[in-house]
Amino acid sequence: MPACMEAAGALAFTLDGQKVVVKAADVDPSLPLASFLRSHLGCHNVKVACGEGGCGACTVLLERQDPSTKAIERHTALSCIKPLPSVHGWNVTTAKGLKDRSGALHKRMETLNAAQCGYCTPGFVVSLYDTLTSAGGDLTTDRLKGELDGNLCRCTGYRSILDVCKSFCTDAPAHLRPTTPDIEDAIPPCKWPTPVPQPLPSTPPPLLKNASLTWHTPSSLAELHSIFRSLRQDGKVRLVGHNTSVCWQEKAKEEECVISLERVEELAGIHVTERAIRVGGQATISELISVIDKEATKTATYAALSAHLRHTGSKQLRNEGTVAGNLMLVKTMAFPSDIAPLLLAWGCRIEYIDLDAPTPSAAQTQMVDLEAFLVADAPKMALIVAIVLDKQNEGAFFRSYRTAMRKHYAHATANAAFWCEFSPSSSGVVSAVRLVAGAVSDRPQRARQTEAFLLEQGLTNKTVTRAIEMLTEEVTIGASSHDSESYRKSLLAGYLYRFLLECINRHDNTRTSTPSPSSTSTHSTTTADTGHLNGTTHTDTDTDPDTDIDREGGGARIWQPLAKPDNERLVTGDAKYTGDVAMDKRALYGAYVTSEHAKATLLRVDGSEAMRVDGVVDIVTSEDFTLNRMINTVTAWDTNLLESVVPIGGQSRFVGQPVALVLAATEDTARKAAHVVKVEWADIQTPVVTIAQAMAAKREYKKMFEGRKGDIAPFEAVFSSRGTADLQVVKGKVDCGSQLHFYLEPQVAVACPDEDGRMTVHTATQGPQYVHENVALALGLPQHKVDVRLRRLGGGFGGKSTGSVPVAIMAAVAARKAGRPVHVSPTRHQDAAMTGGREEIELDYEAAFDRSGRIHAIRASVHVNCGCAGNLAYMCGKYIAEFLEQAYELQNFYLLSKLWITDLPMRMPVRAPGGLPAALAIETILDHIASSLSLDQADVRRANHLTETSLTSAMYVNGEMAAAPRQLTVPVQIARIHDEVCASSEWGRRVAEVAAFNKAHRWRKRGLGLMGLRFPRPLFASNAVINVHVDGTVLLHHEGVEMGQGLHVKVIQVACDTLGTRLFGYPLPASLVRSADFATEFMPNPWLTAASSTSERMCFAMQDAANRMAEKLMPFVNQESADGQVAERWKEVILAANGAKVNLQQQGEWRPSSGNVIDFYDTYGGTVAEVEIDVLTGEHSVRAFHMSYDCGKSINPLVDIGQAEGAAIMGQGFCTSEQVTWDATGRLINDGTWMYKPPLAPDMPTDFRVHLLDNSAFPGGFASSKATGEPPLLGSVSIFLAIQQAIRSARSDAGEEGFFTLSTPATCAKIQQSCGTKIEDMTVEAAKRGE
Length: 1331
Known about the structure:
InterPro entries: 2Fe-2S-bd, 2Fe-2S-bd_dom_sf, 2Fe-2S_ferredoxin-like_sf, 2Fe-2S_ferredoxin-type, 2Fe2S_fd_BS, Ald_Oxase/Xan_DH_a/b, Ald_Oxase/Xan_DH_a/b_sf, Ald_Oxase/xanthine_DH-like. By secondary structure, this protein is α+β, with helices and mostly antiparallel strands. The relative contact order is 0.10.
């Protein structure tokens, strides 16, 4: 960044207690705090996952002391969107810096296995610290409700993280209380050390400027007006509070002046009088909530306002986002605000000044009501000075409602706020009313005609339905890319219906039985909206939270719950990922330019304007692949998949495909320059997006898969006649939507050129062999000149198997061209668009069955959307054909699976590919059968369970048998698991209670889902190496990639147990052993880390290496002297062996006992789920989820239970909230955190129990174990089944009978629209049945 003469002074703040002072001329004011911390200060404790404030991984703690009042301000913030200039004078603390204050918190995060991949963990630690220390002395789970709403985890399933939080509460469950607390544990969080923030210069922040942006921070309105007037003449001026709007809108373009309002004294604070609450223009939402909570203790009306405000953004955003800023976004940019409707219904007023006034004296404060401010021609450059909320009396009645894609941290699909007063002299007479609908058009709307109707007609049983009709007719519904007009109108109708019912209940002597709903409809279906801190969770590994598993004396054995060795570094953020690789000063950063068209010819890439951006060095296109036999192709399984970058003169394959790579000195500079690269296209064609379009265009993939068992020919007549006297037939369809991988760590690669043309590539990949082969091909190098390295992944879920390859290729090609290291990482939006996600599936079925529900035959056809290439998606089509049976005996079935090519990104395997749609399909068929026979779904499943003698189906590819039937893995645990999960969930009681509940309630419904699962997993041949150093320490090498699944700790357990037990009868301590970073220079030709099999096969290979090493060392063991610690005896043996020049390196290898390269075995499980839906809004809550899973004899129960829980919650997201939508042009709509919503902690099942089957063993597995990474994900299908059952109950009430199914995911819109509710049903009489 060039020095700027106008910039003066210095930016000063502290980072983890260390003072940071940067000359103003050296500060780039456009940088967010996280970028500066990572790139300039080398602080990698802060992780950046989304870059738009949507996941919480970058959370830091901000603290400062007011120099005059000495009051300490402390709150969390999102550093990826926090402007660097705004931290002047603040103390910034990361998870690492908090360790000295909250050692007990860090320790419990480690021992309770609250970190898996660890990428989200530092942000969670900061949020947990803030939650625990700000909750007060009487810390209970109830007081912490809803606090953890701004941090996303893709791995853990949240249970272990919430257990950490609960362990500090006075009402913590017994198993979470420390049994041997030390001094540190005895200190409650409210008394943890909170050092007074370091004093920093009281001088105002300096003027900051780079080549295209200036940042001003005035301290008064007069100074603000003066700066504004001087800048206004020169160009664009932007006013910012804390910059939280970038979560919603694109980051501001360059060539502008920014004026920060943060320190304008007249805009600060909230002042409460007897008549009003005056909210300053820079007061945050959290500050307003604090004031409103105090008022709620005096007047109940305020509680509804506070509850809704807590659903605005996340806690971190509420801490920084201002009320005034939120309103200005509504006025200027049609933001779907949750706050504006509340304040409009409340009747608030706005104080503002016109910054365009010629003189400060002319810029007098003006007062208008909020509606006039938002919709009238207020000055374009109006500045909100304050928002005034008049106090409410006890006669006022206020309620607000919202519905969103996710309960927390999601913008509203629709919202509303209603306020009224009743005449004290007459029951039911409305004396004043304000009805406001929001988030359905550009601005909130007053329903004045409906208000007038209620004022004229009063509130009676007869006027309710008419008022609802008038509201929906009066309110204008704007266009939406994801929700229909009818759905959003229905939401508004439901909101007003609930409001009017509650009004009648309050003021009519003949009360209905309708309970008072919560103030936001988000809560109306939840039994305990607490973030489930006080919900029930159960695991099989209840561990003392303050007992560190002994790694010194006791040693590390298999079958024990040993914490991962890097947990401490994961918790502090010290753990390094590929994006944290140290870069030298010459290094460059790459930013993608991507295709705007799914199917068009690329004519030219014009980077001339980008090259004029200071700091830009070069632009890489397909033309840079033409030298030295370089190849612009991604290859896997000896198949060309697609180009790394669209060839100039060639055709794009999908929207978001890389076109070019801009290289610059910093990542921010490269990304800014990428926006100005001009790309010229021709022959732009309408893309094929859907399966139906692909079928019409006859774009079928070359491979066709069939699943066959028995013979369905004798049943053709049964299918044709739709049943006989003995057999009935059901026919239906199952539609599965897509799902994104949504790993927290983005795709990233760092390529470093070396002597002799060699290239080292650090990459975040599950398939280092694919990266190795493809980089060598791309560079025209022999493979021994390419080294691929990595330490750990921040999540993968299949997306980094081949999705990482094009990123690594581009980094390597760019590094070759520039002769310098190059770091490449796509943005979250680019990443989502490039990796494709799970395949959409359409499955049609016919099933013949008898009166007991036993299936006699199934005929099915499957159609799979592969995207632009079928080379990876074929696995999904194949697995559906193979695994349709799941846990059930299908004596006769035929399934034909066809794959279709579309102009979307190439689909890549997502956790449990093929298995998830297969499970949904067979369970839907069984539910259909149970429904048609009016049988308990448990009985139908029991009638079809697999047995010990069952065989699997055969699988054919293009008519040729590819997989012969095989015997199931014994013991077949399906029947046992079914009985156990039914018993633990009290199935019979739940069935009766759900039926009674549904009979008693019209607008809330419950449903139950029950399923069994079988998911075959492979075991591959594998290799490992043990290196023993002369000091006795051991370094392990293996083919696998650690990505949170506990691979490293398991191989350490195996090495310690095998070496120590063979030599001394006791295992070695884990402190002596480390698992090395992966490098192809040491472990060439590795297999893919996928399919949940890597931990087992690495353990097999490591055990072989350890046994061979033990054989070498046995002669050096002093059998006569068994005294001393194992560690000391081990070191003596190593010294002796080294002295004898024994080779202390040992390779191990393993192959399946069959001699095959790959063998399959079966995993088993079962789940029960109970849900409750809100018929009027479509929202749901998971009341219970019970899983029993057979993982054999777990190598490490602490790890395996976490894997099962994380899989279940990821599956819950697939079934409910993770909607993936493509528009007609092939553009992915849900490409970032604003539109894509994986589950958060508050979305967890209230009663969440995951049980590893007791007394189970699998002799064919390593140490009798089975895989846990993917199979449990299938169990989440029971949640979807339960939702469908609840909908069927609602449809029955609406007069719509018959079996009904949804497509996944079961979003609020799909649920509500499927319930068959009409406005004419919304009567007071209907409510007498119960809410």
